[in-house]
Amino acid sequence: MDFANIPPIEDVEQTGVRRSLLEDLALKTFYLMGEVALREMAAQMRVGLGIVRELFDALRKDLFVEIKGMAGGDFRVTTTDKGRERALALLAQNQYAGATPVSLKDYVGRVRQQSVRDFNVRPEDMAQAFEHLVLSEPMLKQLGTAMVSGTSLLLYGPTGTGKTVIAEAMPRVYHDRVWIPHAVEVDGQIIVVFDPLIHESIPDPLHTPHDERWVMCKRPRVLVGAELTFELLDLQYNPATKFYAAPVQMKANNGVLIVDNFGRQRVRPEDLLSRWILPLDRRIDFLTLAGGRKMEIPFDLFVIFATGSEPSELADPAFLRRIPNKIKVSPMKKGQFKEVFQRVCQEYGMGCDPEVVDYLIELLEKEYRQPLRASYPRDLLNQIRWSAQYEGSSPQATRETVLEACRDYFPPAS
Question: CA 163 → CA 118, 141, 276, distances in Å?
Answer without folding.
Answer: 25, 16, 22
